[in-house]
UniProtKB/TrEMBL annotation, chain B:
SUPFAM superfamilies for the chain: MetI-like
PROSITE patterns registered for this protein in UniProt: ABC_TM1
Name of the protein described by the UniProt record: ABC transporter permease
Keywords, alphabetical: Cell membrane, Membrane, Transmembrane, Transmembrane helix, Transport
Compartments, as annotated in UniProt: Cell membrane
Topology in the lipid bilayer: Multi-pass membrane protein
Transmembrane segments: 23-43, 55-75, 96-115, 127-147, 154-176, 188-215, 236-263, 305-330, 342-361, 473-492
InterPro entries per UniProt: BP-dependent_transpt_permease, MetI-like, MetI-like_sf
Amino acid sequence: MEVEKVIKTNKKSQESKFSEIIRRTYTKMQPHPSYRWLVFILGFPVHLVVFLFYFKQREKDTYSTIVEETKKALLATGFKDKLILELKEQLLRKHNFFGQKVNQKEIEQQAEKWAEEQFQKTVQEKAASILEVKGDKRITYETTFQSLISNPLFLFLTFIPGLPMYLLILLYSNPYLKYIFERLIMSLFVILGVAFFVFTILYLSPFDPAANILGETATKEQIAAFNHLYGLDQPYLTQLWNALKGIFTFDLGSSFSGNEEVASSIARKFPITLLLTVISLIMAIIIAIPIGIISATKPNSFFDYTFMFIALIGLSIPNFWQGLIFILNFSIKLQWLPATFNPQNWLSIIMPAVVLGTGLTASIARMTRSSTLEVINEDYIITAKAKGLTQRQVLWKHAVGNAMIPVITVIGLMFGGMLGGAAVTEKVFNISGIGSYIVDKQFIPDIPSIMGGVVYIAITISLINLFIDILYAFFDPRIRSKMKQY
Amino acid sequence: MATILKEKESYIKKHALKLSSEYTQASFTWITSLALTIIFLVSSIDFSGKAMKPFVFSVFVAYALFTCIQILITFMIKKDLQSIGYLRNSTRKLGLIQLLSILTGNIFIFTFAIQLVKAEKSPEYTLAGYMLLTQIFIIAISALNLFKPYVADTFLPAMGALLVMAIFQLVTFFLIAKDGKGKQRARWKVFFAIPLMLTAVTGNLFALVLGWNMLMHERFMNSPSIGKWRKVWEKIASNMTAMLGLFFIVFVFSISICSYLTFDYGMAVENNYSAILQAPSLAYPLGTDNFGRDLFSRIVFGARISLIVGFLSTAIPFIIGGFLGAISGYYGQRTDNIIMRLLDILYAIPGILLAIVIIAAFGSNTMTLVLALSVGSIPTYARTMRANVMMVSNYEYVDSARALGSSNLSIIFQHVVPNSLAPMIVKATLTIGGAVIATSSLSYLGLGVEPHIPEWGNILKIGSTYLESHSYLAIYPGLAIIALVLSFNFFGDGLRDALDPKLD
């Protein structure tokens, strides 16, 4: 009996706590117009009910009568005329100070406008204070909503029809979830934008794929049939809609030349590019980060100069030239490694990975060095040294972790560049990855293939950056505290 | 007093090695010079024939000689600094021997020697040295055309003009060297400055900067406003790698202007079937390609395209991205949100892929290439500008301008933007190199400059098909690309140290 009671009260307090969270978060969401609209749309049935209540309660509201009364009282004291005179004087003095020409009519208009604004503000303030003295509250739509939500019965009844709205409000109440939600929406927006942008550019192209594929001898009927087959005769918006739908359903139709499924050929070619990029990325991280840290701990030493010089050269070498020189030396002259890529021979991926990773290695090494150098001169490192920690402890426990934060961002951003830049390396080593696929298709131009390739790469990059951002939200205390503030 | 002086002296002596710019420069010089010497040694030996190439070997001997002297000088500098804390005059005199290395074309040793022979260096002195070096290099490179079967009609008058300019610049150099630190007033500077700036029509930008510095020095002897410009140049001039980078950029710029008069375009584009795939010789310093076109002339003419495309595809996003970034950073809130979210879309597509898409849509030619490369880098410039504008627009002088009744636009473009340009300039210098690489990469894929134009990527594309038999066709244009990009990176690093902007 006793236990049951405790459970009951517990349940009740939990319930009211839940409604309290919803009520508070709802108030917090009101200043953001986009969220206000989203709440309204998602919880439309609930809002309908609230609206009825609001209409009924408004009749009891005394606010409007109080406003009228204060207005009359203020007008009777000549408050508004005094305001106008004061503002006019101020404007005149300002114009005099700057030596500007005075236009009497303009000044009067301006003064009147400002006076009206100020008057309304004063009236509202006064009315609010009178209301407070009386112990009443102004009834607005929001207050109605809040009072209803605090009622557990109302919450219970509207829980099912207003589920999406309540979920949104709950999402907003947790800063992490809110951050992830906002980031997801942004990524979605970027992906849609990329698809739209790429499609529009290709649509605007003055080239005619039909003429390119069918050859110069094609008749008008053949070209028309081709355009009809691939939907190129449809209006822009229809084509755009089909393209967007195709991206999200992984069904981009068949390519113009070769008549193969675009989505499946992209799926076939994507893994090798991804593998290549990931291998180069791992290689770059393993080589670059130790070099960067060592260079930073011994700045301006011979070691530092040498490695930074090599890194700068690495940044300046064009991928394709490096690939050619590697082929010349290691494949043709020394015959150590195969010149072209072959999936069965794992030795053949070494050269492409090194070539693709050189630029990244150089950037990461430089970035690690500058970032570590910056951190090493911070005050908290001096504190750590003063505490009596050894050089090694200071470096590994306090400096490196913090120095890695910007480096990881750079790695995330560079990874995207690598996925794109892989096209050149793939061409040099004859790898049939996504990059060389896009390059091969661009001569026609084969719109669905190019768009599919570019958009799926952009999606991959967006997702990786999203993942890194979310990881940061959990690991970087500075971001965490900033997130909680809003 | 005496003890303080003594202490200071001992401090300088103790840290002389680290404080002295000569010592670090000397070490850098002998290492690079040694690397060049070894490269010459290796290339002088014909491994398959087990024979020596006498010409390359003699170059190696000359380089080895100067490198040995350089190593000796480095040791003497170290000894001087450790024992007395400064360089003895006898050590500096050794630099005079090293000046002769200009005859071998070893710019590292030559520029070091210029720095070594003078104890107190003004930026004008260094600039004058590099100006002279550029002019000599232009003349030397152009003179290689003498070995060709025929030269351009304008070759002789152009060479004459270049020589006259070089002599004038040499005289200026000696006068500046005699002038000491450049503290005292000198009337002659004004008369030299303007003709000197006129010699910059050859593309020798060092002459332009030097002339401007001399003129301004004379005009505003005591003006603080010119301080920043001078200070930046002082810092860059004391940075050897940055100056070497700048030297190569100016040299490439200058040769692409002078080549209009001193090089014959026909050599680079017209087929000559009697001289197909010839090995490097005096008439064809870097050999010929499969159509008998002179590779050397092609590389020289290719510099023009690389520089133009690199410059334009940096300038366009600099202006557009800078404008968008300034607007969005200054107004903030909704404007910022809309502009930056739209630019995020561009940012999500890797630069090369975006360029490929644009080229696929509008065809591969130079104009499309510039446009394609520009569009991709708008967001990065906008982000840099935005971050700086956000910082600068919180400063007091912006508030005071607003209180004085300036309009928003005039605040942005008169107060905020000029004060947030430093990081943008550094970024631009560092990304021109990237644009040069992207240009040649796209040309290599057949998506860039039209194939009949001698552009470095196009030359490499041809070279790559002869990798096994005539690898020099692929090596030399690649070296040109690396040298130019490396120069931009070195100069950009130096500029960053000199301007010291807060980069994110």
